[in-house]
Amino acid sequence: MIPQRKIAHIDMDCFYAAIEIRDNPSLQGKPVAVGGDSSRRGVLCTCNYEARKFGVHSALPTSQAFKLCPQLILMPVDMPRYKAESMKISEIIHRFTERVEPLSLDEAYLDLTGSSHFQGSATLTVQAIRKLIQDELHLAASGGVAPNKFLAKIASDWKKPNGFFAITPEMIPEFVKNLPVGKIPGVGKVMESRLSAIGLKACADLQSFGRDNLVRKFGGMGFRLFDLCRGIDDEPVVTDWIRKSLSVEDTFAQDIQGAELCLAELSKIYQEFLRRLARQEDNPVQIGGRNQLFVKIKYGDFRQTTIERSFPSLDFTYFQDLFFERYGTSPKPIRLLGLGLRWPDPLDSRQLRFDLDTRETEDRVIEITF
Ligand code: TTP
Ligand code: MG
Which domain holds residue 51? Predict the structure, then answer.
C-alpha cells in the first residue's frame, strides 16, 4: 500500500508589501501596496491587509486602487530584494527537507512524507518553519498540511494571514463538500461561471454530477474535476525545478483594435518569442507532442483571458487561430497581448489528460526570468 502522503504548502503573507513594511517601520499599520505607477498604467503586485479592507488587491490598476483608498502608500517594485528574501526562506525550509517545489518567490510545496523531524509530524515541522521565518526574517508565513497538493494549498490559505491549518485524511469528505468550485486549481472565473450556470457551485454539487457528465462538458478537465471535487490529487511534489513555460507579452501605450492590427502585433510578439526560445540552450524545449500553446489577451477594461491548447508543432498560425477563437467572440479594444508555450514536467504523467483540453485561466502576474 502506498503510504498516506504529508504535503505542506507555505505561502508568505502579502509578501512584497511585508518586506517593504519590515524595512520601513513608519509604514506599519497603514495601507501599503507595491506596484507600478498609475501615470504609467501600472498595476499592483500586492498590498497589505490594511489596504485589502478598502477592496484593494493584487493586479488592480494602481489608478483604481487610489480611488478606493486615497491614503494608500505605493512602493515601487524592488525584485532583487524580494528575491534575496525568497532565497533566505528557501534556506530555512531546506533545513527540514530537500523535497521542496517552489511555485513562486513566496510559495512552496514540501513533501514531508516519512520525514524524521518532530517524529514525522508535518504540523510541527511547518510550525517550526513558520517560527524560524518570523524570528530570523521578521516576516509572516501561513502554512497548510494535507495529504495532497490541492488541499495543502487550500489549507495554507484557510487561516491567512499568519495562520496554519491541517486537513487530515479523515476530514477530507466533510471539508470538500462545501468548498466552492472556484477553489479548484484550473477552475478560473470563466469555468466557475459555466459551472455555476448549471447549478454546480460547491464540490458536493460536482460530486453528484457524475464522471460522464463532467467529461462530456469539460473534456479532459472533467477527469481531473472528478478527482479534485472528492479531494483526490496525486500530483507529485516536483523537486527538480524545470522551467514550465516561456512567454512574451506586450502592453500597448494605446489600446489596439481590429483584426489586422492585432495580428501584426501578435506577429511581432511571436518573433520575439522565437528569439527567446532560441536562447534556451541550457534547457532545450521539445516542440510538439504534449506542449500547450497559449494566447493571452487583456482588454481595455482590464478583463483578461487566456486560451490554451496542444498542437502538433510550433507555428504562428496556431497562435493566430487561438487568438481569433477568443477575440472573435469579443472584438473589444486590447491593451495587452501575449503568447507562449507550456511544456509538461516529465515526472508528471497525469498531464496527458489535458491534451485535448482548452482551458481558460485567470492569470496571475508571474515573473518569468529568461
Ligand atoms: P501571493 O502569495 O498571491 O500574494 P501575497 O503574498 O502578496 O498575499 P497573500 O499570500 O497574503 O494573500 O503572491 C506573492 C507575491 O507575488 C506578491 O507579494 C506579489 C507577487 N504577485 C504579483 O506580482 N502579481 C500578482 O498578481 C500576484 C497575485 C502576486
Ligand atoms: Mg503570499
Answer: 1-167
